[in-house]
Amino acid sequence: MNLSILLFASVFLLLIARLRVVTVLQPRRQTSTSTRSGLIGIWFWVSVVWPVLFKAVLGSVLALYLPVSGSAVFVISYVPSIVIGIAIFIVALGSRDSFPYVPAILVMAVVIMPILIFGVVDIGVVGAIFMIVPTLLWCRALSVDVLNWPRLCYQGLLVLCLSMAVVFVVWPEAVVETCRLDKCTVAGQVLTSSITGNGNFLGLCVALLSVIAVYRQHWITVAAVGLASLIVIEISGSRTAMIGLVLGYLVVLGIGNRMSRVVALAAAMVALVISFVPVFRVYGLRDYTYRGALWMRAKELISESPNVGHGANYWTEHNAYRFSSNYAAHNIWLELGVAVGFFGIAVLVVAAVWALLTTDVENRYLASALIVTTVAVGFLEAPIQPYRTGLLPFLCPLILLLCSSGMRKRSVDTSETEDLAMKAIRNQNVLAGLTRDGAR
């Protein structure tokens, strides 16, 4: 089957889904819509969509005509996100009702910890710090309703798929390569990127966005978006993303329904169990297209420094002589163990649990589905690397924003209740005064 047919089929399915992108939830009363729809919406586009769009599409085309250095890729990909993140932090800092968001502070501690212990810092670590900055403070003016996220993610998916299809027609040599040992599709070709060397990150990003995009949507939207996502994931060669997509869909479609909640819980447990398989099982060096060698080396490094790891960039800087062209340990727990050790993993888990427990029900459902998808793809990849701008640097702040948005709405509701109570007390005092005057 021709790759172009698959690409345009995915775009067609997403356009069909566009006809039904209407949430089944009733919209909540909004607050401070101008700030919310501005800064947070811009943050999504420049932090989530733009880096993937540049690395997967535009950067590959640019590399056909100009040499593209690593520092140039960083500046083009992440500086817009850093600027908007600082703007969000300044807005929150200037608000009278802002206060520190504890889960984000815990994540920031994990980011800074390797710097303090090992004294190693580079542009990737600095970028990771700034990626967390917009989540550090809660502010009512930056509240985001949970219903906005599916729309944003659907739009992001459409832009990515449409851009990829257009570039494939005009510059196919920029985004397509023949099958290789670990990447092959039904089309006999696979999407690639001259920036990253493969299309893995594209498939993972599509899986994560797709899980959010179908939350509380009509079944036609779910079917169209799901099928389109499967097509893109298949031609990107990311089999891991397909596992995450399936388990994430089981959670996001079942968690809000009592009858299906058991299925959602089972999917979450499956994701957790398979993510730990490389940690406890012994593999040969060639297993899973040589991931076995990476996993065994990661276990050796963890045993050398189990508590605090070896630092954010130890894997890429000190293992290149053994494993060329690999960016991580290719497992979520082994990657975190090498970088920040058991202590860092424990802090991140506490931050995730804290964030889920302090948000409202709808945001908890959506964030849980995103976390399950992340853990599932963590079986063969390292999606969470909050200490450096790795595979998906937007993922950690996106989860934090999803959870903090729910807490924000609850805080708004609480303050409104307090205002009503104060008005009732004042009215009672006025009535009491009038009664006394009448008695006289």
TrEMBL record:
Domain O-antigen ligase-related: 227-348
Cellular localisation: Membrane
Keywords: Ligase, Membrane, Transmembrane, Transmembrane helix
GO cellular component: membrane
Record has Glycoprotein as a keyword: no
Molecular-function annotations in GO: ligase activity
Bilayer-spanning residue ranges: 42-66, 73-93, 105-132, 152-171, 191-212, 219-235, 241-256, 263-283, 332-357, 364-384, 390-407
Recorded topology in the membrane: Multi-pass membrane protein
InterPro entries: O-antigen_ligase-rel_domated
Record protein name field: O-antigen ligase family protein
